[in-house]
Amino acid sequence: MLRGLRVLGSGPQCGPRVPLLLPVRGRKTRHDPPAKSKIGRVATRPAVDPVEFFVLTERYRHYRQTVRALRLEFVSEVRKKMYEARAGVLAERKALQDAAEHCDLMAWNRAENQRLHELRLERLRQEAREQEQRQAEQKARRAQEAQAWIQLKEQEVLQLQEEAKNFITRENLEARVEEALDSPKSYNWAITREGLVVRPQHKGS
Amino acid sequence: MVQLTTVLCKAYHGGHSPFCLALCGYTNQLFYYIVAVRNRDGCFVEQLDSYCPLPKSHGERVIALNLDWIQHWTVCGAHLCKPVEWLLGLSGFFPLKESIVGRHPYR
User: Pfam families this protein is in (chain B) (predicted)?
Assistant: First the structure.
């Protein structure tokens, strides 16, 4: 097989170095025909010593027998381990321990649930009490506001009644007109934007 | 350890998953894993935890074997290839291969 590039470094290096590709498989490539001297050649296998062959086969047989026995031994060990893990003494003990632990945990869980339930009930009662208190306060405040509103309206009504005594009606229209004409008060004045009152300078206008 | 190739060393054992040496390591620094594979030429290397650096370090060669898993895979029907047979024979877990064919020709 070609081993890749081999750069020939022999000789003086004149000019650029050109790498050559050389096969290193042997003298012939795979496509060359065999030589004429090899025409009748029959390749024979090396001779086997029957005694050595017998000894070797026996040893191999013994080895493989031993390995097979080891394999079967491992299989039986693994099966025993699996059985022990599934139904042995240790497995039963572990199952009992697990059951006891489960019972303990369930009891603890029930106690915890009970405690939390009581806490929850207490909290709900507290919230109900606060709610009632808030509602009562709200009711009192609303009543107070209503009462204040009523008083305010009563005051307005009384004030209006008082003012109504000075109203001008058809009965006292003439009397009020005469009174306004006879009064010395003059409405003949003006007011500027700045708030200054401007009165006429001369009388009789 | 970067696994450069999983060129497996030895003969094909028909059918079951054999134990083989998988070559890893760097240039001029060999390192082998003993693996259980499904197919010799497949890239699918199942698993095994034992590894074996063959070159000498401090004058001896160190092998680490996970005997529990070797036993497990033997029960599952794994065969051994020849280098692994040698190594396990030397370790004492399996019968000695030296007793059959004599000393290893390369060592």
Answer: Ribosomal_S16
B24 to chain A, closest Cα gap in Å: 22
Residue A205 to residues A16, A99, A188, A202, Cα–Cα distance (Å): 134, 120, 9, 7
Quote ipTM for the complex: 0.72
The domain locations on chain B are 20-81
Q: What architecture is the B20-81 domain classified under in CATH?
A: 2-Layer Sandwich (3.30)
- Chain B residues whose C-beta is within 8 A of a chain A C-beta are 71-72, 74-75, 80, 94-95, 97, 99-101
- pLDDT computed for residue A37 by the predictor: 92
Token code pair at residue A149: 């509103």
Per DSSP, the three-state class of B21 is strand
Give the tens place of pLDDT for each residue, A124-167: 999 999 999 999 999 999 999 999 999 999 999 999 999 999 89
A95 touches chain B (CB under 8 A): no
Q: Is B67 helix (H, G, I), strand (E, B) or coil?
A: helix
β A197-198/A190-191 pair status:
antiparallel
**Do residues B19 and B84 touch, judged by C-beta distance below 8 A?**
yes
